[in-house]
Amino acid sequence: MAHRQLTRLRARYRLTPWWVRVLAVYAASRVVTTLILLAYAAAQPANAWTGASPGYADFASMWDGHWYFIIAVAGYPSDLPVTDSGAIGENAWAFMPVYPLLVRALMFLTGLPFDVLAVAVSVGAGAGAALVFERLMRLVLPPHAVMFSVVLFCVAPLSPILQVAYAESLHLLLLVSALSLLVRRRYVWMLPVVAVASLTRPSGLALALALAVHVVVRWARRRREPFPRGEAAAATGVAVFSGVMGFAWPALAWLGTGRLTAYTDTELAWRAPYVGEQHLVPFAAWPQAAQWWFGRLGLPGDSPVGVLVLLLVVALFAAALFTPAVRRLGVDLRIWVGSYALYLLAVFFPQSSTFRLLVPLFPLLGVVALPRSPWYRIAAVAVAIAGQVGWVHIAWWVDGYDWTPP
């Protein structure tokens, strides 16, 4: 009897449309994540953004959500704030416009408040991202791993970001769509997706690098995989367009403020509490951060240990891209992972929000999904959910003075 019921359940599962299965997984994962967030909201003391024990929407709109709220209701400042030392202070130009302006449009149409609509946009975009992710993984993974990769996507340690007032969820939808189009060789269709994605979260330059490498690889392999002139021209055009879009927001910040370096100066304001006021020097931030973080462990400031550990991690990550398991993802997704990682090394200062900045490396979840053992999969989900609790505790929940922003 039990075997017969199991057979019926399997048959019913196979007959269920793929999108229903994905949305069911996404909905179940949102229940788990919502319970985690509500538990922390109930214990949340009064802080700079909310009173004690805030409701879900208020709790989900803290941190950068407040900057998006400012942009949605007041736009961007024409005069940049200046610190006592004369440097540019933190301001709204660090945050790109697509997400807050979309929420603002919905506020106008519905009359609902920012926090409710911001969370709704994020949840909806997260569902869309899960659907497109399933289609993308179907192109590169064996059938047995596709649905489990979706499970991991939905329960990943940073998956609470899919239901808070942050732009990551919307950007993830756009990025998964762009990569899916890239793998399918639908280059022209990438143009509008890249344009919107580049004004949602910083990604244009990373996509430009990935597309440039993609063109080189396809040209080198043209005898095995034909690379018609039309496709070559389209792919090259999208690469150039992505590079232009990578500089679009800094250019708009310049036009809006009259200061050529308004955007980069604004971004540097967030690293000043760690290493002081700095100029933007590509690839300098990670060695600086390595020294700073290991200095907190008691090592002397001139100790090379931090930089050596950084170099080891970078070398291991690069080597991992050529392992058989990662190669299962295909060359295009590996190019993206490597390009985005290089972009992070070039421009970002690693601190607690770096976990969130690693979200675009999501194709690697396909590698984690490959083993078929049920016990492995149960353990992987349990570890991921534990990671959610850890991230919310370390980065989202505010417990007194908090220097670990999400």
Give me the strand/helix succession.
HHHHHHHHHHHHHHHHHHHHH
* Class computed from helices, strands and strand pairing: mainly alpha
Task: Tell me the fraction of residues in β-strands, as a range.
Answer: under 5%
Shape call: globular
Average of pLDDT: 92
DSSP summary, beta strand count? 0
> Uncertain spans, ≥5 residues at pLDDT below 50?
none
Number of helices: 21
Distance between the termini: 50 Å
Radius of gyration: 22 Å
Helicity level, as a percent range? 55-70%
Number of domains: 1
Q: What's the main sheet like?
A: none
Membrane topology: Multi-pass membrane protein
GO molecular function, one term: alpha-1,6-mannosyltransferase activity
GO biological process, one term: GPI anchor biosynthetic process
InterPro entries: PIG-V/Gpi18
Please give the structural blueprint.
Layout (H helix, E strand, L loop, with lengths): L1 H14 L2 H26 L12 H4 L4 H11 L23 H13 L3 H27 L2 H13 L12 H16 L3 H12 L5 H17 L8 H18 L1 H10 L4 H8 L2 H4 L9 H11 L9 H16 L3 H4 L3 H17 L6 H4 L7 H4 L5 H23 L10
Helix pairs in contact: 2-6, 2-7, 2-21, 4-5, 5-6, 6-7, 6-8, 7-21, 8-9, 9-11, 10-11, 10-18, 15-16
